[in-house]
Structure formats: C-alpha cells, structure tokens
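Progress report, Aim 2. The chain analyzed during this reporting quarter is listed below.
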Amino acid sequence: MQHSIVPDKSSVPLLLDCSNVSVLRDGKQVLKSISIKIPDGKHVAILGPNGSGKSSFIKLLMRELYPAQCDSPFEFKIYGRENWNVFELRTYFGLVSNDLQFTFTRRISGREVLLSGFFSSIGLFYHQITQNMEDRAWEIAKFLNIEPLMDQYIEDLSSGEARRLLIGRALIHRPKVLILDEPTSSLDLHALHTLRSYLREIARSGIGIILITHQIHDIIPEIDRVIMMKNGRFVLDDAKEEILTSENMKNLFGIPIRIKKEDGYFYATGY
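Predicted structure tokens for the chain:
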C-alpha cells in the first residue's frame, strides 16, 4: 500500500485513540492505564527519563506489544480500527531507532538499506526490486544528501551517516507517520545539527512525527505538543511552551534544571 507524501486529511480518523490501556512485559506492568489521542498529521514529542515506558509505548503502537486484558474497559484504535494486519499497519509508519541501527551490522550497502524499507527487512535477499523502487531510493538519497553513501557499507559509516540512511529507509514507502525513538543518541554536534535540519523539512512536508526522547534539544520547533512520561504513565500533556518549564523538568527528572529557549529550541542547563 502506498501513500502520497502529503496525506489527504479529509474525513480521516485519529491516528491514535487510546484510553485506559495497560501493557505487561515479562510479567511487569510497563504501561499503566495510559490515555492519549493523536490527530493525523500532527507532531508530538514524548519526553521522559530512561525506563519511563517510552519505548514500550512505541512497541504498542507498532503492535509488538498489546493491551493487557484488565478489569477496567479500554480502547485502542489506530486510524479508527481496533484490528490490523501488522504488515498492513506498518505501511503507515516509518520507524527509526537505535535498536534498528544495531541490526544493520552485516555488510549491507546504503542502497540496500534504503530499498529494504519496502520489505521491512534487514538488507535484501530474494526481493524483486522494480525500477520505481530504484528511482524512489535515489530520490530519497538526494533529499537527505546521502547519494555518496549508496555504495558504501553501513557498518563503515559514522553514526550520523547511518542514521540518515535509516531515516531514508523509513521514508521510502511514503509513510503517513515517522516515528523517531531517541534519534540523536551517539551523534556529535555536527551530525545533530544536520539531522535536525532534515527532520524539520520532513515535518513541514506533511508527514506526522512522533518523537520519543529524553533530550529536550531533540524537540524541533515544528513539534508543538509535548507529553511527559514517567513510571509507565503520561503525567503531563499540553502545548510545548506550557510543558517545557524548569519546574516540570525538575519534577520529571528529579534534579534541578533550568530551561532556556533559543531559535525555537529548548535547552536544559544547570544540572
């Protein structure tokens, strides 16, 4: 299933309609009665310390985890549907994560990394590649300025270069939503600056962004809603300017933090 770069938002239900959902993982409750509504095409950041349940929430959205059958009724719908074929659902999403990058450790070229996004595979095996797929891969490579990386092996690249390849892989099938799980981890300042500039372009293209992070400087100016998460719960959910305050950050991370804003970005200091 293919989607245009700018989705038609007429009569489209919520991307996510989640109410009173809990999730168990290895017998432990990792998400506790969470409720959230995300309109289609909107940009949202989920901010919280390590171990707060952020990655479990992404696995719930990607149907790697499922709501637990508890005594209280719950609702979990993606684009208005409770039941999905997982392969169909994933055509709507593009995912970039550190876990994904760690799986690309074999001798896989940049071209293979991009094209594997059509098949949700790690590299190419017996997949049939069409000319349209090849053209799309080079279109994405040009957009992300990674054309010189197409013939190089991902394991030989810097973290920033590899991350841009994975973003290209996530975008290649024209998803409606780009999910970024700690996207700037291990990046130096130059790679961070470059990555944020491309994420801003993607956000302005009409693709929705769900950003998962513990770093507030990851939150690009185009994201206007922030949800704070702690101990498996959503504890605050509001406009970015209302959420990203020194007091809220202190309560979230448990240390004194001062927040400053510059050129549309928020930064934490004093810790």
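Confidence is low (pLDDT under 50) at residues 1-10. Residues 63 and 269 are 37 Å apart (CA to CA). These observations will guide the mutagenesis work planned for the next reporting period.
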